[in-house]
Amino acid sequence: MYDDGKLGLVQDDKVYDVSAALSVLPAAQKPWMGGRGDPLISHLELLRPAILAALPGASAKAVADARFLSPVQRPSKIIGVPVNYHEHVVEAESDVATFSDRFRGSIEQQGFFLKAVSALVGPGEGITLRFPDRRNDHEMELGVVIGRKVSNIGAEEALPVIAGYAIALDMVVRGPEDRSLRKSGDSYAVLGPWLVTADEVADPQALDFSLHVNGDLRQASNTSRMIMPIAEQIAYASRFYTLYPGDIIMTGTCEGVGPVTPGDTITCGIAGIADMTVAIHSAYDDARNVR
């Protein structure tokens, strides 16, 4: 999704406007009873041939000139996985003053957490720091987008329910409040720049990723270093609640978590997925906090 809500297909550093494909989506007779989940992700298999049919003759622009929105617009929930890399566990335990000691134990003992859906933005919208006088940290992660409704499934059933992958930034303001509250400010859940469908990623558990702030390397790791693998994350989440198309799992961050301030620029990338740039704003800059 890009610019003013166009549906795009990215090929060879260009994004093609294939919004015409949206005409195949079934019209909701009663939108308020349309069910849970993102309609685009729910009907992805229906959309794919329509997107290809719309491609010939579609207008295009350079990826660098597009303002990318979140590829998922209506998730029922955004799920966060805590301290899922050993090196980040060490980092957090060595700096209790910053990371606090409220959350200890294994991932299962801590449990997953939820971020408010209203926190979701795309990279083109940027991040507006809700409390610029407090420490606000970046946490780069692989974002997993669920493709169909499932509940209480096993890890061996999990990977086929994935619609695709994107870069995720799980932003957080440090402080004494509950983790979910501090991670749910407007724009504190960045997803993008686009969705790479699951069939395009041979092994999501073997992806290099990195994050820079103003050109300085902050985070770098590989998804193979996760404590709880992606399949187990999906299975574990599905034990507690039904997963719907478009639900987002932010799969945990590695070491190198650090602060950002207004005026900073985050650049990050995941091999085989994408690269993206995100600007950091202040809530007082120019009313960007009003959405």
Q: How is the topology of this model organized?
A:
Blueprint: E1 8-11, E2 14-17, H1 39-42, H2 44-54, E3 60-62, E4 78-80, H3 86-94, H4 96-99, H5 107-110, E5 113-115, E6 120-121, E7 127-129, E8 136-138, E9 140-146, E10 162-170, E11 172-173, H6 179-182, E12 189-197, E13 208-213, E14 216-222, H7 230-240, E15 248-250, E16 258-260, E17 265-270, E18 274-282
Parallel strand pairs: 4-15, 6-12, 7-18
Antiparallel strand pairs: 1-2, 2-3, 4-5, 8-11, 8-16, 9-10, 9-15, 10-12, 13-14, 13-17, 17-18
What does this 3D model show about the protein?
The protein has 291 residues and is α+β, with helices and mostly antiparallel strands. It has two domains: 8-65, no CATH class; 78-282, Fumarylacetoacetase-like, C-terminal domain (Fumarylacetoacetate hydrolase, domain 2), CATH 3.90.850. Helix content is 16%, strand content 30%. It has seven helices and 18 strands. The chain has helices at residues 39-42, 44-54, 86-94, 96-99, 107-110, 179-182, 230-240; strands at residues 8-11, 14-17, 60-62, 78-80, 113-115, 120-121, 127-129, 136-138, 140-146, 162-170, 172-173, 189-197, 208-213, 216-222, 248-250, 258-260, 265-270, 274-282. The strands form four sheets. Strands 5-4-15-9-10-12-6 form a seven-stranded mixed β-sheet. It has a five-stranded mixed β-sheet with strand order 7-18-17-13-14, with no helix packed on it. The chain starts with 7 loop residues before the first strand and ends in a 9-residue tail after the last strand. The model is unreliable at 286-291 (pLDDT under 50).
